[in-house]
Write a structure and sequence with these properties.
Order of helices and strands: HHHHHH
Shape: globular
Number of strands: 0
Distance between the termini: 16 Å
Number of helices: 6
Strand content: under 5%
Radius of gyration: 15 Å
């Protein structure tokens, strides 16, 4: 018999993405501010699109039937938002040292999120 409950790693990643995705709609301004300026169109559009993508990926991770696909999608999503994290770190150079450090810390933290996503994708 197959266990249909989400694996703890998949569940925690799904929750992280669901909260982040919902936050894009509830409080979009901070996300607007880190949209790379090189992207065409309005920052708010990118904020909403990335929030919707995070919610969709969270749903695929939470569902046992789509979890492996969700892992691959999550890895791609974490790669796709990496430029926004770099943009934030560059833009925050005039902030307090602790905030600058936090902004730069987000950049390499994408690596373990991608690794976890790929582990989920492998099952």
């Amino acid at each position: 018999m197959t266990d249909r409950r989400p694996a703890p790693s998949a569940t925690s990643l799904a929750v992280l993405l669901a909260v982040a995705g919902a936050t894009h709609f509830v409080a979009p301004a901070p996300f607007d501010a880190i949209v790379p300026r090189a992207l065409p169109g309005r920052a708010r559009t990118w904020t909403y699109l990335s929030g919707a993508a995070e919610l969709a990926v969270a749903a695929t991770l939470a569902n046992p039937r789509t979890r492996r696909t969700g892992g691959r999608l999550a890895a791609g999503l974490f790669l796709a938002v990496l430029p926004a994290n770099v943009q934030m770190a560059l833009d925050w150079q005039d902030k307090a040292p602790a905030l600058r450090a936090a902004a730069w810390a987000r950049v390499p933290l994408q690596a373990p999120l991608i690794a976890r996503s790929l582990r989920i994708a492998r099952g």
